[in-house]
Amino acid sequence: MLKKFMAVFIVAMLALWSFVGCGPKGPNQYGDKIVIQVGIYNGGWGQEWLDKAAAEFEKKNPQYKVLVDGDKKYYMSTLLGTIDVLPQDVFVAPVYLYDYLSQDLLMDVTTEMTTPLKDLGIGVSDEESIADKMWEDLDEFYKGYNNLGKYFAAPFGGGIYGISYDIDLFEKKGFYYDASGNWTKGIEGTQPKSVGQDGIAGTYDDGLPVTIDEFWNLCNYMVNEGVTPFIWSDQTSYTSNLIYSMYAAYEGKANFDLVKTMSGEYTFEGDSEPTKITPQKAYLLMNMTGRKKALEFAYTLANNPDYYHSQSGTASMSFMTTQSEYLLSVVNESLGLGKRVAFIIDGAHWYNEAKDTFNDMAAMSDEYANRRFGIMPFPKYEGSPATKATYFASSFYTSVFVKKNAKEAEGAKKFFAYLQSDEALQMCTQYSGMPRALDYEMKDEQLAAMPDYYQSLWGAFGGNSDIVYHTCANPYIYKNEQFFESDWKWKANTRDGKTLSDPIGNFRTYPTLTVDEYMTALRETMSEEVWLSKIAVGN
Fold first, then answer.
1. Whole-prediction pTM value?
2. Does 499 reside within a domain?
3. How many helices and strands, by DSSP H and E, does the chain display?
4. 122-130: long-range contacts at Cβ-Cβ below 8 A with a sequence spacing of 24 or more?
5. Helix ranges, 433-502 (H)
6. Do 430 and 496 lie in a common domain?
7. Are residue 430 and residue 503 in the same domain, yes or no?
8. Residue 319 predicted with pLDDT over 90
9. pLDDT per position as a tens digit, 219-277
10. Which residue of 20, 33, 458, 525 is surrounded by the most CB atoms within 10 Å?
11. Are the C-beta atoms of residues 345 and 239 closer than 8 Å to each other?
């Protein structure tokens, strides 16, 4: 107890010192302005967008000064244990919200969520309330805790897991499909690209492979052209989530949402009649066809060494190292030191994380300035029930909230509300590439100012596609959110003692491991007994 007390005391004293005595000019440096302190988890989305939003808020509300602090400490259990003693009042952070709500740590922001934003006195003209902008299932979750009908946070959003590709390389080598199913061969404008998976010309997926056969055909073509298709880091969350997103892409939103609702029917492979799904029987969803198809993709990739950079997934390949290796492969190719790489498996925020490498390359040569990248929809398997391109969203447990014991509660709630205004949402997307999980539009001039990769993400996220995620009002999930973001995906044990959790890495580590063996391990590991002990009992 003494150690815990001393740790909290030290954090509290450091926070007080930083707020009161450690500013550039002491406690009166902002005159009579009311100071709002904001903490953001400074991950892949960065804080540039938030700095710009803070500056705009100050212009509209000159009585306030917003201080933004970006740090890795604003995260999950770390923040949970320190939120009460930190000087910040507003947070943008990845959290399992139930942990915070069950300890009564968050401020009620129902008024800010349900009042038209133009009526909150924050200087914006939005006719809608934040609640009006909420996606239906997210709205049910954010106001559904303990059936109180009150809001304590707003969703931040997340990237999407997809296959990022080098647009410049595709155009140079002619890796796009044309309308006849042939390669465009790099002759821009003379051989129009195919309309892609969405069937609409002029969108982010033009010319990209639609079927799984077209995709592997493309990979083979790349290899023949001296290009390495894939590279990935030692961060297994990226590879495992990519394969999980492919599972979602096969099933489509209606089927994938069975995981969230745990209510409905599903016809399993080999069955002639559908099986009724209930919360007590949801473990059966481990055997969905989409899981098998996703594992087939992982197996094919892992068992074709020509398809990936030889150091992919090794301990020397941190995510930052991998991003640099991917971007610099164009330089290595020109110097005869390696092959160009077409795809990177990473989170959707990799482009923002790699800014230093982009800047270094631009300084190296004009040839390497203004590099262009995009995101590719997952190829479709025959029999897929999906009606649209479907992506599993990352970071959907990130929220925007005000702590309950906020020092400047009124100002904190005003800034909270402002961050959900259209102009703040647009700033976030323009400067971080992050599509927020709320309904809003981007202006043409904003899109034009964004890098191609950010435009591509917006095209996938806000276009003719479906975004799926686990976040929902189902207590079986929100009380066990960490389980669904980890073990539920690919964790399994085989009969002969193999421990599995990362399909691509596992198929490489165990060359004799088969897709059927992995599927059997998933079913047996998530047995009815295990499922009920982990999830259903007591909820």
1. 0.90
2. yes
3. 25, 15
4. 122/57, 122/60, 122/61, 122/414, 122/417, 122/418, 122/421, 123/57, 123/59, 123/60, 123/61, 123/418, 124/60, 124/418, 124/421, 124/422, 124/423, 126/421, 126/422, 130/154, 130/417, 130/420, 130/438
5. 444-449, 452-462, 475-478, 481-484, 487-490
6. no
7. no
8. yes
9. 999 999 999 999 999 999 999 999 999 999 999 999 999 999 999 999 999 999 999 99
10. 458
11. yes
Taking residue 337's Cβ as centre, other Cβ atoms within 10 Å add up to 10
Alpha helix segments (H runs only) across 209-312: 212-224, 236-256, 258-261, 289-302
Q: Which domain holds residue 287?
A: 231-392+459-539
Tally of structural domains, the chain: 3
- Structure tokens, 433: 């590439």
Mean pLDDT of 285-311: 98
Is 497 among the domain residues? yes
Q: Where are the alpha helices (DSSP H) in 47-200?
A: 48-60, 76-80, 97-102, 110-114, 130-133, 136-142, 167-173
Q: Is residue 189 part of a domain?
A: no
Distance (Å, whole) CA 93 – CA 328: 32
Residue 101: inside a domain: yes
Collapsed DSSP state (helix, strand, coil) of residue 498: coil
Q: Is 205 exposed, middle or buried (0-12, 13-18, 19+ CB in 10 A)?
A: buried
Quick one: 49 and 26 in the same domain? no
Relative to beta strand 64-71, strand 34-41 is parallel
Q: Are 480 and 262 in contact (CB under 8 A)?
A: no
Same structural domain, 303 and 425: no
Q: How far apart are CA 38 and CA 248, in angstroms?
A: 35
